[in-house]
Write a structure and sequence with these properties.
By secondary structure, this protein is mostly helical. It is rod-shaped and about 95 Å long. It has helices at 2-65, 70-80, 85-105, 113-148, 152-158, 169-176.
């Protein structure tokens, strides 16, 4: 009788320890996923801010340079479609580069107060996006590590938890334009 009680207590203690380990690892995985989603939301919000700034800048540029900016029209059409943030960011970055080129080619436009304000806000937005990307990549790395290590990999398999690609990877692969899409 005494041996049965010891065996039952041992089984109960081991079960409690395993359940505790499961809960801790599951919570770590979920916490990483939540942080990744938060970073994605910040990135998307900042991309919307940048898009609005670009729209405002387009008006200023067209008024002061008499240029027809087709790249900005492409950006408007992308915003109307349901595209991922990687593609949207790539197009927005192209538009921002164009704005900086125009700034260099037309020094008089830089004297405009509204243009200066847009450039300042674009720089602030760039800083915010880079911080969010760093936060995203850090937590994505943590999630990737958790899904590869034992025993948390078993929990990830049970709950069908997948990892995402790192955020900056899209720029590296699309620069070569060899058709690789992430």
């Amino acid at each position: 009788m005494y041996i049965i009680i010891i065996i039952l207590l041992t089984i109960i203690i081991i079960s409690i320890l395993l359940a505790t380990l499961y809960i801790i690892l599951y919570n770590k995985i979920q916490f990483s996923k939540i942080k990744i989603e938060q970073a994605e939301n910040v990135i998307v919000d900042e991309l919307k801010v940048r898009y609005d700034l670009i729209k405002n800048c387009k008006k200023t540029i067209e008024k002061n340079t008499k240029m027809d900016l087709t790249l900005f029209s492409e950006l408007e059409s992308i915003m109307k479609t349901n595209t991922n943030s990687f593609e949207l960011e790539r197009k927005i970055n192209q538009a921002v580069k164009t704005i900086y080129l125009i700034k260099n080619d037309y020094p008089r436009i830089e004297e405009k107060k509204e243009f200066k304000e847009i450039i300042r806000k674009l720089n602030e937005s760039d800083t915010a996006i880079n911080a969010a990307k760093s936060f995203y990549n850090k937590n994505n790395k943590e999630l990737l590590t958790l899904t590869k290590k034992f025993p948390s990999n078993i929990i990830a398999l049970i709950h069908h938890i997948n990892t995402s690609s790192f955020y900056d990877a899209i720029e590296v692969f699309n620069e070569s334009d060899d058709g690789i899409k992430i």
